[in-house]
Amino acid sequence: MKIIGFYADSFEASLVQGQLANAGIQACLLNEYVNEVMPWGSDSDRAVRVGVADEDYAAAMAVLAPEGSEEAEAAVPKACPFCGSEQVSLGLRGPKRWRKILWTALAVLTMSPPGKVRANYYCRECRREF
Question: Which of 10, 24, 54, 111 is most buried per CB count within 10 Å?
Fold first, then answer.
Protein backbone atom coordinates (compact mmCIF):
# COMPACT_ATOMS: atom_id res chain seq x y z
CA MET A 1 0.00 0.00 0.00
CA LYS A 2 1.18 3.49 -0.87
CA ILE A 3 0.02 6.75 0.67
CA ILE A 4 -1.11 9.29 -1.92
CA GLY A 5 -2.01 12.18 0.35
CA PHE A 6 -2.37 13.64 3.84
CA TYR A 7 -5.51 15.63 4.70
CA ALA A 8 -6.55 17.74 7.69
CA ASP A 9 -9.94 16.11 8.18
CA SER A 10 -11.86 13.02 7.12
CA PHE A 11 -14.28 15.01 4.93
CA GLU A 12 -11.52 16.18 2.61
CA ALA A 13 -10.03 12.69 2.50
CA SER A 14 -13.46 11.21 1.72
CA LEU A 15 -13.78 13.53 -1.27
CA VAL A 16 -10.47 12.23 -2.60
CA GLN A 17 -11.59 8.66 -1.95
CA GLY A 18 -14.76 9.39 -3.94
CA GLN A 19 -12.76 10.77 -6.87
CA LEU A 20 -10.69 7.61 -6.93
CA ALA A 21 -13.78 5.39 -6.65
CA ASN A 22 -15.29 7.16 -9.68
CA ALA A 23 -12.13 6.26 -11.59
CA GLY A 24 -12.44 2.62 -10.49
CA ILE A 25 -9.59 2.72 -7.98
CA GLN A 26 -10.11 1.39 -4.47
CA ALA A 27 -8.69 3.60 -1.74
CA CYS A 28 -8.76 3.37 2.02
CA LEU A 29 -8.64 6.04 4.70
CA LEU A 30 -6.08 5.63 7.47
CA ASN A 31 -6.46 7.51 10.78
CA GLU A 32 -9.99 8.45 9.76
CA TYR A 33 -11.30 9.03 13.28
CA VAL A 34 -8.10 10.16 14.96
CA ASN A 35 -9.30 13.80 15.19
CA GLU A 36 -12.24 12.70 17.35
CA VAL A 37 -10.13 10.50 19.61
CA MET A 38 -7.04 12.68 19.89
CA PRO A 39 -7.89 16.35 19.16
CA TRP A 40 -4.84 17.66 21.04
CA GLY A 41 -2.10 15.99 18.96
CA SER A 42 0.13 17.60 16.38
CA ASP A 43 -1.11 18.13 12.82
CA SER A 44 1.15 15.43 11.41
CA ASP A 45 -0.18 12.89 13.93
CA ARG A 46 -3.81 13.78 13.26
CA ALA A 47 -3.58 13.81 9.45
CA VAL A 48 -5.95 11.50 7.63
CA ARG A 49 -4.04 9.44 5.08
CA VAL A 50 -5.42 8.07 1.81
CA GLY A 51 -3.79 4.85 0.63
CA VAL A 52 -4.07 2.79 -2.55
CA ALA A 53 -2.64 -0.53 -3.72
CA ASP A 54 0.88 -0.42 -5.13
CA GLU A 55 -0.28 -1.28 -8.65
CA ASP A 56 -2.92 1.52 -8.60
CA TYR A 57 -0.54 4.25 -7.42
CA ALA A 58 0.28 5.72 -10.86
CA ALA A 59 -3.37 5.73 -11.94
CA ALA A 60 -4.43 7.36 -8.66
CA MET A 61 -1.84 10.11 -9.01
CA ALA A 62 -3.03 10.73 -12.58
CA VAL A 63 -6.64 11.07 -11.37
CA LEU A 64 -5.66 13.52 -8.63
CA ALA A 65 -3.36 15.60 -10.86
CA PRO A 66 -4.64 19.15 -11.39
CA GLU A 67 -6.31 19.87 -14.73
CA GLY A 68 -3.83 21.00 -17.38
CA SER A 69 -0.73 19.75 -15.55
CA GLU A 70 1.86 17.49 -17.12
CA GLU A 71 0.68 14.53 -15.02
CA ALA A 72 -2.89 14.97 -16.24
CA GLU A 73 -1.71 15.26 -19.84
CA ALA A 74 0.27 12.03 -19.49
CA ALA A 75 -2.78 10.17 -18.13
CA VAL A 76 -4.95 10.84 -21.19
CA PRO A 77 -4.51 8.22 -23.90
CA LYS A 78 -3.13 9.69 -27.11
CA ALA A 79 -4.69 7.14 -29.42
CA CYS A 80 -7.58 4.69 -29.60
CA PRO A 81 -6.46 1.14 -28.77
CA PHE A 82 -8.80 -0.27 -31.43
CA CYS A 83 -8.13 1.86 -34.52
CA GLY A 84 -5.14 4.02 -33.54
CA SER A 85 -6.99 7.30 -34.14
CA GLU A 86 -5.97 10.36 -32.12
CA GLN A 87 -9.51 11.74 -31.99
CA VAL A 88 -10.16 10.56 -28.43
CA SER A 89 -12.30 12.37 -25.87
CA LEU A 90 -13.40 11.74 -22.29
CA GLY A 91 -16.99 12.17 -21.23
CA LEU A 92 -20.54 10.91 -21.53
CA ARG A 93 -20.40 10.17 -25.24
CA GLY A 94 -21.03 7.22 -27.43
CA PRO A 95 -23.95 4.87 -27.93
CA LYS A 96 -24.72 4.52 -24.20
CA ARG A 97 -24.78 8.27 -23.52
CA TRP A 98 -28.54 8.66 -23.10
CA ARG A 99 -28.76 5.52 -21.02
CA LYS A 100 -26.21 6.98 -18.59
CA ILE A 101 -28.03 10.31 -18.45
CA LEU A 102 -31.38 8.55 -17.87
CA TRP A 103 -29.96 6.41 -15.04
CA THR A 104 -28.42 9.47 -13.40
CA ALA A 105 -31.67 11.43 -13.62
CA LEU A 106 -33.64 8.48 -12.27
CA ALA A 107 -31.21 8.13 -9.37
CA VAL A 108 -31.58 11.83 -8.53
CA LEU A 109 -35.37 11.62 -8.62
CA THR A 110 -35.52 8.52 -6.42
CA MET A 111 -32.66 9.70 -4.18
CA SER A 112 -30.72 6.49 -4.72
CA PRO A 113 -27.09 5.91 -5.69
CA PRO A 114 -26.53 6.05 -9.47
CA GLY A 115 -24.47 2.88 -9.63
CA LYS A 116 -21.61 2.62 -12.09
CA VAL A 117 -22.42 5.62 -14.27
CA ARG A 118 -19.07 7.10 -15.16
CA ALA A 119 -17.36 8.82 -18.03
CA ASN A 120 -15.38 6.74 -20.51
CA TYR A 121 -12.97 7.49 -23.33
CA TYR A 122 -14.65 7.58 -26.72
CA CYS A 123 -13.09 7.35 -30.19
CA ARG A 124 -14.79 9.53 -32.80
CA GLU A 125 -13.36 7.48 -35.67
CA CYS A 126 -14.45 3.93 -34.81
CA ARG A 127 -17.17 5.07 -32.33
CA ARG A 128 -16.09 2.72 -29.53
CA GLU A 129 -15.81 3.32 -25.80
CA PHE A 130 -12.83 2.22 -23.77
Answer: 10
